[in-house]
Design goal:
There is one protein chain. This protein has two domains: about 150 residues, no CATH class; about 100 residues, no CATH class. By secondary structure, the chain is an alpha+beta fold. The radius of gyration is 22 Å and the shape is elongated. The termini are far apart. It has ten helices and six strands; from the N terminus they run αααααααααββββββα.
Length: about 250
Amino acid sequence: MFDYGDIFYEKQIERVNNFKTKLPDVKIPSWEDISIVGIKPLPLFIIARENLPTEWESHLPKWKLEFINSLINMPPSPKKKIISLSHLYISLLKHFLQMLEENNPEYTPQEYSDILYENSQRNHPLKIYDPLQTIQSFCNTLQTLWENREKTELTEFRIFKFRHEGILQGKKAANYSWKTIIAYCGGNIKGKGKCGCSPLIFGREKSCSCGLLICPKEDCQYCKEDCPSYEERSADRKAKIRKELI
């Protein structure tokens, strides 16, 4: 996962340092006042590694507060003054798996946006430049997984990898093969163009022998181009169409 260096973030780092310098002398508004104005101050406190005002904490659910504190207390990298995209991604995944284990009824991944973003723009989580909106895409993936956690049997998986296109794969153990947990269809439907069916979810959609998910659309059923099972499904589908035309 690509990250820009500190030189790229000079202005952000300067702003954070100014904030840290002035914070002791500033009267911090109440949570109600901030909510009325529509300000989202959480990202600034997180990247400045400053604890939230005690009064604010009472207005946040426990899971949000724990996640915020985990970011604030994250050991700083000796080479970077800001939290990197890769560290943020790992933090999100670790917290999600923790919530999954607890089955916390208050938790919802879509509310990570309240913590990570200052506004509606989704290419600067915690002021980190994210042109591909990797973090937002990952949060959307986590939300879909959370809503379908019983179907995916997600608690059985122990090793994960995520691609910015929104594809999540997992293993139940190191010696197990990768299983696609969530994805989108990359196939093409004759006469229609790209399929793009999304999201495909492990446990809801069928898994192919190649380890990928099978598109549920009857006229697609794609997994990957060079898969023998996909070629067999395509041949069966064509034979069925020919039979219907006779």
